[in-house]
């Protein structure tokens, strides 16, 4: 096939272009270009270390516990060795074990160190009578009419947040507050709180110190709070008896109950409770029957009694089984000290009578503990966090079911040998029957979560106005106050409250309220005018 004229011109152009490229010597230029861009080899500045290949270890790097001679079951002395070493460390050592239970008595001069002014300030804050029983006689409760409720609402509505200091400056404890108590003094306000690390904070509202802001500014003041590290774990309860106002009792999850005697400036260890295996058993609550005897509950559901007059060498704690799970709170019947009510993690509220001890334990586990007679029971949808019993015979409880239940005295019979509801007289069978019916059910958000302490409703102990009322924290950063018939009489809030006052209480006789938050801040409402 003959080549066309167009194909002949194309081949001629290709030949001419190849000849031109050959004359330009592009291959030679290409080699020079890459040789100039090649990276230069630099000197390695890191010094090479020659490893000794003949290194021989004196002992094997990895050994089994059998070869090392370690016992698989350590003796009790070996288990107590870390605690013994921690006890021998100097006070205030940074390596001091935070979870260590303190044993024996401690002088406040030794605890506070070189702070003689603090010791003297504590002594002055707790001056006065050694007995307040005549001051705090329980007022007979009265039937509340609409006029009394309106008057109480006006009084609580007129309460003001403590005006002397910004609440952000009143740091009662260093960590999340787990317990708080108003001292029964009426001529001065003293608040005592405990946190999750075992620290106790004492704040007298009249104590303050001057802050220097320079010559061009006015002087400012800040509150003075005394901090004492007396426990190794969460302080679950703080108690003050009107018969002994200078003694502050505290219970902790480290298994100890201590008495802070501010008259003697001494912290006494009055109980160290261990379980059957010798491990510290956490104390969740304590309540005094009289100045010498108190009841206590534990994390494992035990109930016990302790007499302060028992010699140290012969102390034996009378322990009974009430629940298989944690007892978060309990309360004693003010009219009959042999009856008490417990709130447990097993979703039950139970009423017990100590005058008859059953030979059969209510526990599902095989154990030697006996149980008191269960004369009343209420089953909740979720765990019951707190319970309290007022002087008029009313019981309040709340829990994670987002309900506050009030059992009124008028619908509950209190015979000498049993405790039952008139609407359902069948007694509880081994604590499983649901024979208690609440008279008032209040909807309340109790979902605190992980970072806020558990909400617990608490009655005012000795109301001077004769009106039974309780307080519980509100998750919207406030206090809710209810009377015994379920009517809300108070809703206390303030713009400066930036946290939930989860742990709170009334003053035993006055209508003052105080609460503590997760950061250790304290919120006090009183009737002082702004």
Automatic annotation (TrEMBL):
PROSITE patterns: WD_REPEATS_2, WD_REPEATS_REGION. Keywords: DNA damage, DNA-binding, Repeat, WD repeat. Transmembrane segments: none annotated. Pfam families: WD40. GO terms for molecular function: DNA binding. The keyword Repeat applies. WD repeats lie at residues 320-362. It comes from the Eukaryota. GO terms for cellular component: nucleus. One of its GO terms (biological process) is regulation of DNA damage checkpoint. InterPro entries: WD40/YVTN_repeat-like_dom_sf, WD40_repeat_dom_sf, WD40_rpt, WD_repeat_DNA-damage-binding. DNA-binding protein that binds to both single- and double-stranded DNA. Binds preferentially to UV-damaged DNA. May be involved in DNA-metabolic processes. Belongs to the WD repeat DDB2/WDR76 family. This is DNA damage-binding protein CMR1. It comes from Komagataella pastoris (Yeast).
């Amino acid at each position: 096939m003959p080549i066309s004229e167009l194909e002949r011109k194309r081949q001629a152009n290709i030949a001419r272009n190849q000849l031109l490229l050959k004359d330009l010597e592009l291959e030679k230029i290409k080699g020079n270009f890459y040789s100039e861009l090649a990276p230069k080899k630099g000197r390695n500045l890191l010094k090479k270390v020659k490893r000794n290949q003949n290194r021989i270890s004196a002992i094997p790097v990895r050994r089994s516990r059998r070869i090392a001679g370690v016992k698989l079951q350590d003796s009790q002395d070996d288990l107590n060795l870390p605690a013994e070493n921690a006890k021998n460390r100097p006070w205030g050592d940074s390596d001091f074990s935070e979870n260590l239970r303190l044993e024996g008595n401690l002088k406040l001069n030794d605890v506070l160190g070189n702070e003689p002014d603090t010791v003297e300030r504590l002594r002055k804050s707790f001056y006065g009578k050694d007995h307040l029983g005549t001051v705090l006689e329980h007022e007979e409760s009265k039937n509340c009419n609409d006029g009394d409720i309106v008057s109480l609402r006006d009084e609580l509505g007129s309460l003001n947040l403590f005006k002397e200091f910004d609440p952000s400056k009143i740091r009662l404890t260093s960590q999340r507050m787990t317990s708080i108590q108003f001292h029964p003094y009426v001529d001065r306000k003293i608040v005592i709180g405990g946190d999750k690390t075992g620290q106790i904070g004492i704040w007298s509202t009249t104590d303050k110190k001057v802050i220097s802001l320079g010559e061009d500014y006015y002087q400012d003041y800040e509150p003075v709070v005394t901090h004492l590290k007396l426990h190794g774990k969460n302080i679950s309860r703080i108690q003050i008896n009107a018969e002994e106002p200078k003694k502050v009792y505290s219970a902790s999850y480290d298994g100890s109950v201590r008495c802070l005697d501010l008259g003697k400036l001494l912290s006494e260890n009055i109980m160290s409770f261990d379980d059957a295996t010798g491990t510290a058993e956490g104390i969740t609550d304590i309540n005094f029957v009289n100045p010498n005897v108190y009841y206590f509950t534990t994390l494992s559901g035990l109930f016990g009694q302790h007499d302060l007059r028992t010699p140290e060498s012969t102390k034996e704690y009378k322990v009974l089984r009430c629940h298989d799970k944690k007892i978060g709170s309990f309360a004693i019947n003010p009219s009959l000290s042999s009856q008490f009510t417990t709130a447990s993690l097993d979703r039950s509220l139970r009423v017990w009578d100590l005058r008859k001890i059953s030979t059969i334990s209510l526990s599902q586990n095989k154990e030697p503990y006996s149980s008191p007679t269960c004369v009343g029971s209420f089953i909740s949808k979720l765990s019951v966090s707190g319970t309290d019993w007022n002087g008029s015979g009313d019981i309040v409880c709340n829990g994670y079911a987002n309900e506050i239940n009030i059992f009124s005295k008028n619908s509950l019979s209190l015979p000498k040998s049993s405790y039952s509801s008139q609407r359902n007289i069948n007694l509880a069978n081994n604590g499983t029957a649901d024979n208690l019916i609440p008279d008032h059910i209040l909807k309340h958000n109790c979902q605190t979560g992980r970072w806020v302490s558990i909400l617990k409703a608490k009655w005012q102990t000795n109301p001077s106005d004769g009106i039974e009322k309780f307080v519980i924290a509100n998750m919207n950063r406030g206090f809710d106050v209810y009377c015994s018939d379920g009517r809300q009489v108070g809703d206390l809030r303030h713009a400066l409250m930036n946290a939930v006052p989860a742990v709170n209480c009334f003053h035993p006789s006055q209508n003052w309220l105080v609460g503590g938050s997760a950061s250790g801040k304290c919120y006090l409402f009183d009737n002082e005018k702004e």
